[in-house]
Amino acid sequence: NADLLLRIGICFGQIDEWSESLLFFEQASHLDTMQGPVSLHWGIALQHLGRWEDAIAKLQIALEKMPDQTSVMFYLGMCFERASHATNNEKYFRESEAVFKRLIEIDPNDAFALNYLGYMYAEKGIKLDLAVKLVLRAIEINPNNSAFLDSLAWAYFKLGNIEAAAKYIAKSMKYIEGDEGIELAVIYDHAGDVSNAIGDLDVARKHWMRALEIDPTNDLVRSKLEQ
Question: pTM of the prediction?
Answer without folding.
Answer: 0.90
